[in-house]
């Protein structure tokens, strides 16, 4: 049994009602419910008396250190079987880390700990690392984003990594680490016995200077499938170094996020080689890099390679125009694996989308999700888009936000939605002006086709 409630103010009567339900729940999720330390005292009792409870999610509540102390009393009881604990943005400080250390040391059932968006600091996380080093700790996932960590944390983290072969996921994004610390961390990861599958280092002050060490991790950890180094200024030279590891035969990368990394079209030669030859790679994000049309054309050529197995490509805000759309269309008509294309916030224009739709409607194309927000589109391309919506049954999600489609364009989209052949499930239309009459048509359409969700 699951209890999943978000963004609800808890009155005393409502809380009492939920406590009865919680006694038999396997999963309890209460994000954004204005909970406090007093609620944690009740939750501690639930943890103690409900041995079937395996997941507790309490993100974005003002629990504070006192609340975590209550929770940990329940977590330390022999009957507790909790596996996943989410305490993101709960107003915790380093004071909570001593209590959590006790849980890590004594509770082998706990495999996931999410404590990001809390002011734990380097001193607090060093204490957590001590708990991880206990032989009883079987932690597999540790999330420490936005925890005000500095370079001084790496020695303690590396010691924990050395002693924790169970660890599979480590997220340190949005902490001020810098190249020296990242190099030290990567050397530790190469030596550690853990089979890390996910490493997130977004916005950690990384430059090209530490990319050789990250590349070494990619070469030496064949278990690593998910790497995110977005929002770091690695540049084209850093990407070239990363690709040495990514192209290594032992690297089995599946998901690669490189958003806002100061890449240009010069990187696209290496990226194209990666896309066309690394058959494990299924998702790549290049959002907010200045790839331009010439870079996108290289990527499209790679997508046409039979060895490419890419399923998701994110190229939003990459300086693209109508000029690259013929190449994108050709890739869509060739690549049978691509299912998600985020190409919004580029100046594609009506002519560009007309070209995209040619590829979209090809029998080989299996696109399910297409994002075209803020692409300078008008009602002029909506008839073609409507045809694609009505004929391409695999297309279930379409984003047309921030385009001046007006009544004429929206009506054409509505005509497609009404057709039985249209399989659209989610249509996103943020910040588009239309009349009250068209608004009525959209609402009526939602009532007649409840399977369609229109977000505006």
TrEMBL record:
Organism this protein belongs to: Eulacestoma nigropectus (wattled ploughbill)
Cellular component, GO annotation: cytoplasm; nucleus
The keyword Cytoplasm appears for this protein: yes
Subunit and interaction comment: Forms high-affinity heterodimers with RNASE1, ANG and RNASE2.
Location of the protein in the cell: Cytoplasm; Nucleus
Protein's UniProt keywords contain Aminoacyl-tRNA synthetase: no
Classification via InterPro entries: Leu-rich_rpt, LRR_dom_sf, LRR_RI_cap, NLRP_innate_immun_reg
PANTHER family in UniProt: NACHT, LRR AND PYD DOMAINS-CONTAINING PROTEIN 12, NACHT, LRR AND PYD DOMAINS-CONTAINING PROTEIN 3
Protein name (database record): Ribonuclease inhibitor
Pfam families from the UniProt entry: LRR_6, LRR_RI_capping
Function recorded in the entry: Ribonuclease inhibitor which inhibits RNASE1, RNASE2 and angiogenin (ANG). May play a role in redox homeostasis. Required to inhibit the cytotoxic tRNA ribonuclease activity of ANG in the cytoplasm in absence of stress. Relocates to the nucleus in response to stress, relieving inhibition of ANG in the cytoplasm, and inhibiting the angiogenic activity of ANG in the nucleus.
Keywords on record: Acetylation, Cytoplasm, Leucine-rich repeat, Nucleus, Phosphoprotein, Repeat
């Amino acid at each position: 049994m699951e209890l999943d409630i978000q963004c609800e103010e808890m009155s005393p009567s409502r809380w009492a009602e939920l406590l009865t339900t919680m006694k038999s729940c396997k999963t309890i999720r209460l994000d954004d419910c204005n909970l406090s330390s007093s609620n944690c005292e009740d939750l501690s009792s639930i943890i103690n008396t409900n041995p079937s409870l395996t997941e507790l999610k309490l993100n974005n509540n003002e629990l504070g250190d006192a609340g975590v102390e209550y929770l940990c009393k329940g977590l330390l009881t022999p009957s507790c079987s909790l596996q996943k604990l989410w305490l993101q943005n709960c107003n915790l400080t380093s004071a909570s880390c001593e209590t959590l250390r006790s849980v890590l040391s004594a509770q082998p059932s706990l495999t996931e700990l999410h404590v990001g968006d809390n002011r734990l600091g380097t001193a607090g996380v060093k204490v957590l690392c001590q708990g991880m080093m206990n032989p009883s700790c079987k932690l597999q996932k540790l999330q420490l984003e936005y925890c005000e960590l500095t370079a001084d944390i790496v020695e303690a983290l590396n010691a924990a990594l050395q002693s924790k072969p169970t660890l599979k996921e480590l997220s340190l994004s949005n902490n001020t680490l810098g190249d020296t610390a990242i190099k030290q961390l990567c050397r530790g990861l190469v030596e550690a016995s853990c089979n890390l599958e996910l490493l997130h280092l977004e916005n950690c002050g990384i430059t090209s200077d530490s990319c050789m060490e990250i590349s070494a991790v990619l070469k030496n950890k064949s278990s690593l499938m998910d790497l995110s180094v977005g929002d770091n200024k690695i540049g084209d030279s850093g990407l070239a170094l990363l690709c040495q590891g990514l192209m290594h035969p032992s690297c089995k990368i599946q998901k690669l996020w490189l958003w806002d990394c100061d890449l240009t079209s010069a990187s696209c030669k290496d990226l194209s080689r990666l896309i066309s030859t690394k058959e494990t790679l299924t998702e790549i994000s290049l959002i907010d890099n200045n790839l331009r049309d010439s870079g996108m054309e290289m990527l499209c050529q790679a997508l046409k390679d039979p060895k490419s197995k890419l399923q998701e490509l994110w190229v939003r805000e990459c300086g693209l125009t109508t000029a690259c759309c013929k190449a994108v269309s050709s890739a869509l008509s060739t690549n049978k694996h691509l299912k998600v294309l985020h190409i919004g916030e580029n100046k594609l224009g009506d002519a560009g989308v007309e070209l995209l739709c040619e590829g979209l409607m090809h029998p080989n194309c299996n696109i399910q999700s297409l994002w075209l927000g803020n692409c300078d589109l008008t009602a002029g391309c909506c008839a073609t888009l409507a045809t694609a919506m009505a004929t391409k049954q695999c297309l279930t999600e379409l984003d047309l936000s921030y385009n001046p489609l007006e009544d004429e364009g929206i009506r054409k989209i509505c005509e497609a939605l009404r057709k039985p052949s249209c399989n659209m499930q989610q249509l996103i239309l943020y910040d588009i002006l239309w009349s009250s009459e068209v608004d009525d048509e959209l609402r009526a359409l939602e009532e007649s086709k409840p399977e369609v969700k229109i977000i505006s």
